Amino acid sequence: MSMANKDNNVSVSVCANCGKEGDVNNICNKCKQVKYCNAACKKKHRHKHKKHCERYVVEKHDEKLFKQPPPQYEDCPICFLLLPTLSTGRRYQLCCGKMICSGCSYAPVYDNQGNKVDDDKQNKCPFCRTPACNTEEMMKRLQKRVDAEDPVGIHNLGIFYRDGKHGLPQDHAKALENWHRAAELGHAAAYCNIGNAYYDERGVRRDMKKTKHYYELAAVGGDVFGRYNLGNNEANAGNMNRALKHYMIAVEGGYAGSLKSIKELYSHGYATKDDYTKALQLYQEYLGEIKSDQRDKAAAAREDYRYY
């Protein structure tokens, strides 16, 4: 601990056990809040400090865990509307590395005279105008994105290894390797897939502590699916208040499954009417942010995916 010197307002370190002032640099490894003059004092004071230490660590952990996370994806670079949470509402462009909403991907293209471009000329990336390609060329483009340290491209390569798609063998070890790499580069969804791997025993043994750890990293990074999974884990453990907190954050992030879970909590008396009303409002606000006529048309058309 530290205390201020009354004469000059200089902070002085004080051993939490013996009260010695001065060169007190042996810090509690868990809470980082209490200092000791040596290891012997730390050990002697442990039984007195343990409860406070554990409570402080839990409080700081929850403060970070339940803080409103940043959006997982930026706005669509063409229409500047919030990108939808569901993968069906957005498309990753391998040619330029941009994430485009399905509405802009589906929208017709017009020339500078206002005339609609012919279909054969329209079959290009909506952002950089690179022509569509076959699967073989797609994998070459993906490798270029991976080599450029693009976290979304690296994450997608992990998915292809997990599923054994596009000519790649099913290899859970390589899937995990790519997800760890993507996560380190800031792609929160990769943490969720790592957590899923530990839960589903894909390439690793089931480990619920690691599952929870990676779901938490995903949730803090803005991934709504990791957040929803945390809510389910808490609900299964009987921690309904914590489950509700997770579901609320996931609803605000646009995940409809969490809205359904909050409705179930309400029907069983674990959430109030106000909680459910708030969840409905949050989800409606999210829908308002992502809605556009062109996105609705794209959803209705269910256009086949093209590789760019």
Entry keywords:
single chain; 308 residues; mainly alpha; Serine Threonine Protein Phosphatase 5, Tetratricopeptide repeat; 2 domains; two-stranded antiparallel sheet; 5% strand; disordered N terminus
Structure write-up:
By secondary structure, the protein is mostly helical. It has two domains: 64 residues, no CATH class; 159 residues, Serine Threonine Protein Phosphatase 5, Tetratricopeptide repeat. It contains 13 helices and six strands. The chain has a two-stranded antiparallel sheet. α4 packs across α5, α9 runs antiparallel to α10 and α10 runs antiparallel to α11. 33% of the residues are buried. The N terminus is likely disordered.
Secondary structure topology:
Blueprint: E1 2-4, E2 11-13, E3 26-27, E4 35-36, H1 39-65, E5 90-92, E6 99-101, H2 102-106, H3 119-122, H4 135-147, H5 151-163, H6 172-184, H7 188-200, H8 208-220, H9 224-236, H10 240-252, H11 256-267, H12 273-290, H13 293-301
Antiparallel strand pairs: 1-2, 3-4, 5-6
Helix pairs in contact: 4-5, 5-6, 6-7, 7-8, 8-9, 9-10, 10-11, 11-12
